[in-house]
Amino acid sequence: MRILVIEDEIKTLQSVRQGLEEHGWTVDIAYDGETGLRLGAQNVYDVISSDIIVPGINGLELCRLLRKKGIQTPVLILSALGELEDKITGLEAGADDYLTKPFEFREFLARVKALARRKSAGFQTTENILRFATIELDLDAKTVRREGKPINLTPREMALLEYLMRNPGKVLSKVEIAEKVWDLDFDTGTNLIEVYVNYLRNKVDKGFEQKLIHTQFGQGYVLRSE
Q1: What string of DSSP letters covers 157-171?
Q2: Burial class of 223 by CB neighbour count within 10 A (0 to 12, 13 to 18, 19+)
Q3: How many CB atoms lie within 10 A of CB 177?
């Protein structure tokens, strides 16, 4: 497994690098955002880990630029900022996970492994276009349309919609969504899933007579055309 670590704190970098290499990972290092962007665009990685505050391009902008280039390598954002809004900002930038500093290496390794598993397993399909009711999701072009109208989604919103579309009619709990879309253990103290479902609902259902994303109170969420 190969990982790119973008970090300018030498102590953190040395600790993470040593731990990863002891677990058999090949580790590439970048001390600034520009180098990280160049390496991330040129090479194939299983995971990219980046601190937010690094010289040059910060971790959030780096993530946005990678996604604009069409690079879908899972990204783990590291930050000393641990409020919910900070995490949402990181995920909105296109990151796949967010870990607050200081952290235990064991948790870092578990998050990295989970992202690598997601990349290798992925959401695969023999068809490149998913359809449900009047929604069409093109997996190759990363576009969504409803009744022919384009809908602009963030990478995380698109991943959430994809999971719903792969499970139409099934009530999906917050725990399932956290595990399958975020690769995270669900924290009952956060409303992160609810926030993102509302984001998605406002984009996919707002302005359309037929509502497709429904809340099953006390159980979760379901995609249905009733």
Answers
A1: HHHHHHHHHHSTT--
A2: buried
A3: 23
- Residue where the block lists tokens 């704190």: 9
* Measured torsion, CA atoms of residues 66, 154, 104, 14, in degrees rounded to the nearest 10: 10
| Residue 2, SS3 per DSSP | strand
Residue (of 198, 46, 178) closest to 109 by Cα position: 46
Q: What does pTM read for this prediction?
A: 0.57
Q: Which tokens hold the place of 82?
A: 């641990």
Mention every residue, 6+ apart, whose C-beta is less than 8 A from residue 113.
Answer: none
The token pair that represents 145 in the structure block: 């349309």
Closest CA to 47 of 69, 83, 20: 20
The sheet with strand 135-138 has its strands ordered as 129-132, 135-138, 143-146, 149-151
Distance, in Å, from the CA atom of 219 to the CA atom of 90, rounded to the nearest integer, reads 27
Q: Could you report the per-residue pLDDT of 17-51, keeping only the tens digit for each?
A: 999 999 999 999 999 999 999 999 888 889 999 99
The two structure tokens encoding residue 103: 């952290």
| Entry field: residues in the chain | 226
- Is 160 in contact with 197 (CB distance < 8 Å)? yes
Could you give the CA distance from residue 46 to residue 120 in angstroms, rounded to a whole number? 8
Tokens of 179: 């595990």
Mean pLDDT to the nearest integer, 195-221: 92
